[in-house]
């Protein structure tokens, strides 16, 4: 087996890298273990988390940092202890590339690795159990532990599979966990990469979906994807009163603490569930207790999905022909792509292609 490939990618060296100042360079992947897979990257989606990390928005980033955690490519080296993946297989890696994986860890042993309280290893900007650093997918190659490497079903194109591995699973897992199905009325606040996946999954599960956005410029897209209703909060007077109590479940995807959360909560009916995905850098959410009390509303959060949920999602996507709206861009244009992503231009996910 030829091992003469080099790990190269777009590296952020300081917070200014988030403004389109990543630099191309070599990096040293974690030391090889026989449970690992090396992937020749063909596609990598651009996630909002990439920008938070490049600019140290959630705390100090370990620079140099190569972001990207919606990785698809071909396995080119497979450890002797890896099961179910072979050289040449089309595979993917999402936002998490390892956890403690100990038998006595309640979460890891019950298939909830994404909530492992002991060791949560991100696909980039994290330290592996063997001390090596993790590097993401704006790159030529990726090395990840096989427990978090997934075979991509033939029916799903790589450009569609890549964004499923973070944006897709982040919205799929909570819909399933909260028993979304026929009759469920789902509201989606923030109609971007995650939001448009949420809409497509919910629709495929038989739910009715209302998209809630500031303006109506994405209204036609939302209806084309299967939304039944669209609320433009900056354009419709009394939108909260007129739509009060109309939803069972709300996905809150925006990363700002300065949003009309009481009004959003008023859209829920009794026993409704408000699920927060976005993690604002600008402070805590302020929720009046009355918003929870009057209708026995539940407020919760959600973090990606587990390996078994990711496998289930890929199967579901293949069977239901789920196709996210993506725009492919050459890997060489990654800097421009993250600037355009920051400016909200993505309709609805950028995918870098090698
Ligand atoms: Zn992500
Ligand atoms: Zn664990």
UniProtKB/TrEMBL annotation:
<dbReference type="GO" id="GO:0008106">
    <property type="term" value="F:alcohol dehydrogenase (NADP+) activity"/>
</dbReference>
<dbReference type="InterPro" id="IPR011032">
    <property type="entry name" value="GroES-like_sf"/>
</dbReference>
<keyword id="KW-0862">Zinc</keyword>
<feature type="domain" description="Alcohol dehydrogenase-like C-terminal">
    <location>
        <begin position="193"/>
        <end position="318"/>
    </location>
</feature>
<keyword id="KW-0560">Oxidoreductase</keyword>
<comment type="subunit">
    <text>Homodimer.</text>
</comment>
<dbReference type="GO" id="GO:0006066">
    <property type="term" value="P:alcohol metabolic process"/>
</dbReference>
<dbReference type="Pfam" id="PF08240">
    <property type="entry name" value="ADH_N"/>
</dbReference>
<dbReference type="InterPro" id="IPR002328">
    <property type="entry name" value="ADH_Zn_CS"/>
</dbReference>
<feature type="domain" description="Alcohol dehydrogenase-like N-terminal">
    <location>
        <begin position="34"/>
        <end position="154"/>
    </location>
</feature>
<dbReference type="InterPro" id="IPR013149">
    <property type="entry name" value="ADH-like_C"/>
</dbReference>
<dbReference type="InterPro" id="IPR013154">
    <property type="entry name" value="ADH-like_N"/>
</dbReference>
<keyword id="KW-0479">Metal-binding</keyword>
<protein>
    <recommendedName>
        <fullName>alcohol dehydrogenase (NADP(+))</fullName>
        <ecNumber>1.1.1.2</ecNumber>
    </recommendedName>
</protein>
<dbReference type="Pfam" id="PF00107">
    <property type="entry name" value="ADH_zinc_N"/>
</dbReference>
<dbReference type="InterPro" id="IPR036291">
    <property type="entry name" value="NAD(P)-bd_dom_sf"/>
</dbReference>
<comment type="similarity">
    <text>Belongs to the zinc-containing alcohol dehydrogenase family.</text>
</comment>
<dbReference type="GO" id="GO:0008270">
    <property type="term" value="F:zinc ion binding"/>
</dbReference>
<keyword id="KW-0521">NADP</keyword>
<keyword id="KW-0597">Phosphoprotein</keyword>
<dbReference type="InterPro" id="IPR047109">
    <property type="entry name" value="CAD-like"/>
</dbReference>
């Amino acid at each position: 087996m030829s091992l003469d490939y080099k790990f190269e990618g777009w590296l952020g060296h300081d917070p200014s890298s988030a403004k389109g100042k990543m630099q191309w360079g070599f990096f040293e992947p974690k030391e090889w273990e026989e449970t690992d897979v090396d992937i020749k990257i063909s596609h990598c989606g651009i996630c909002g988390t990439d920008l938070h990390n490049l600019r140290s928005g959630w705390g100090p980033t370990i620079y140099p940092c190569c972001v990207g955690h919606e990785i698809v490519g071909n396995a080119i080296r497979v450890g002797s202890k890896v099961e179910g993946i072979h050289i040449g297989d089309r595979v993917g890696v999402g936002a998490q590339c390892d956890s403690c994986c100990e038998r006595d860890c309640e979460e890891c042993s019950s298939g909830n690795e994404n909530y492992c309280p002991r060791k949560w290893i991100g696909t980039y900007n994290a330290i592996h159990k063997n001390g090596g650093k993790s590097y993401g997918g704006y790159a030529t190659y990726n090395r990840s532990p096989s427990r978090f490497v997934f075979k991509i079903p033939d029916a799903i194109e790589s450009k569609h599979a890549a964004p499923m591995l973070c944006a897709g699973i982040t919205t799929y897992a909570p819909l399933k966990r909260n028993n979304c199905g026929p009759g469920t009325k789902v509201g989606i606040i923030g109609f971007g990469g995650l939001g448009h996946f949420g809409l497509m999954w919910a629709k495929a599960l038989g739910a009715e979906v209302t998209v809630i956005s500031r303006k109506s410029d994405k209204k036609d897209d939302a209806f084309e994807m299967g939304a039944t209703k669209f609320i433009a909060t900056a354009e419709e007077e009394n939108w909260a009163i007129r739509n009060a109590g109309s939803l069972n479940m709300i996905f809150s995807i925006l990363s700002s603490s300065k949003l009309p959360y009481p009004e959003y909560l008023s859209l829920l009916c009794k026993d409704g569930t408000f699920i927060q995905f976005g993690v604002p850098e600008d402070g805590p959410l302020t929720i009046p207790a009355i918003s929870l009390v009057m209708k026995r509303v539940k407020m919760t959060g959600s973090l990606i999905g587990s390996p078994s949920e990711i496998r289930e999602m890929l199967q579901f996507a293949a069977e239901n022909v789920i196709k996210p709206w993506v725009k492919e861009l050459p890997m060489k244009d990654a800097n421009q792509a993250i600037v355009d992503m920051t400016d909200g231009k993505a309709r609805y996910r950028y995918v870098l292609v090698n």
